[in-house]
Amino acid sequence: MIYFILSVYSLVLASFLHVVGMNYPLRKPFLRRISSECDYCGEKLQLTRMLPIASFVLLKGRTGCCNQPMSWSYFIVEMLSPVFVCILYGVYGFESSFYLYIFIFSLLLILYVSDVYYLHIPNMFLFVYFLSCASYYGYVDLSVLLQHMYQLILGTVVFVGIYLFARKGFGFGDIKLLILLCFLLSLKEAVFIFIIAVFSGAILIGIVTMFQRGMSKKQIPFVPFILFGFLLCPFANDFFWELVLYN
């Protein structure tokens, strides 16, 4: 029963976060919207066309009003959320780590959508999540906050150094996000996420380039690969560093 409840809540949350990621960069309101509308023709959507996952499948990936192809980002975000949340619960239960990972996951879902659609990472979300987590760490224990500030400083040195060394490979928004992850988690976890993101991105881009010429010259969003690295982090980070450092 708990898995069903978590799935429902995570689907609703994912759907809302997708709306936030699509609308905030365009400065469109998303909290006071009376109803959702079609991305193409602007027609107000009926409730039956807004059901997470089900609407995408039943409508065969096309809008019900103007028969235009729906973005796969809807399906990806709504599929990822319940799977990740339920696995996370199975591993951590309702420990503090569970809530922290969900908190960061919500940020990455927003930035995933924003980066895929607009190649833009809004500073406002980075600041809000930093301030929220800093307040929590400070409330728990000042020493905890200081430890995470130390991770933030180390992360700034590491990732700004990477940015200066490989300037054309990453946008500065990606670097700011990785630095924030150092604060929210730790430098080790952020580096793990970065390594997975780089390798998975290189593999996918290499495969796509084989079939689409000129793909390597296009600007490609990096947040989806950061999100992929983060999804593995709660389950593989410790094993990865044990493998690297002690073998």
TrEMBL record:
<feature type="transmembrane region" description="Helical">
    <location>
        <begin position="145"/>
        <end position="165"/>
    </location>
</feature>
<dbReference type="GO" id="GO:0005886">
    <property type="term" value="C:plasma membrane"/>
</dbReference>
<feature type="transmembrane region" description="Helical">
    <location>
        <begin position="98"/>
        <end position="114"/>
    </location>
</feature>
<keyword id="KW-1003">Cell membrane</keyword>
<dbReference type="InterPro" id="IPR000045">
    <property type="entry name" value="Prepilin_IV_endopep_pep"/>
</dbReference>
<protein>
    <submittedName>
        <fullName>Prepilin peptidase</fullName>
    </submittedName>
</protein>
<feature type="transmembrane region" description="Helical">
    <location>
        <begin position="6"/>
        <end position="26"/>
    </location>
</feature>
<keyword id="KW-1133">Transmembrane helix</keyword>
<feature type="domain" description="Prepilin peptidase A24 N-terminal">
    <location>
        <begin position="9"/>
        <end position="89"/>
    </location>
</feature>
<feature type="domain" description="Prepilin type IV endopeptidase peptidase">
    <location>
        <begin position="102"/>
        <end position="205"/>
    </location>
</feature>
<dbReference type="Pfam" id="PF06750">
    <property type="entry name" value="A24_N_bact"/>
</dbReference>
<feature type="transmembrane region" description="Helical">
    <location>
        <begin position="72"/>
        <end position="92"/>
    </location>
</feature>
<dbReference type="GO" id="GO:0004190">
    <property type="term" value="F:aspartic-type endopeptidase activity"/>
</dbReference>
<dbReference type="InterPro" id="IPR010627">
    <property type="entry name" value="Prepilin_pept_A24_N"/>
</dbReference>
<dbReference type="GO" id="GO:0006465">
    <property type="term" value="P:signal peptide processing"/>
</dbReference>
<dbReference type="InterPro" id="IPR050882">
    <property type="entry name" value="Prepilin_peptidase/N-MTase"/>
</dbReference>
<feature type="transmembrane region" description="Helical">
    <location>
        <begin position="121"/>
        <end position="139"/>
    </location>
</feature>
<keyword id="KW-0812">Transmembrane</keyword>
<comment type="similarity">
    <text>Belongs to the peptidase A24 family.</text>
</comment>
<keyword id="KW-0472">Membrane</keyword>
<dbReference type="Pfam" id="PF01478">
    <property type="entry name" value="Peptidase_A24"/>
</dbReference>
<feature type="transmembrane region" description="Helical">
    <location>
        <begin position="222"/>
        <end position="241"/>
    </location>
</feature>
<feature type="transmembrane region" description="Helical">
    <location>
        <begin position="177"/>
        <end position="210"/>
    </location>
</feature>
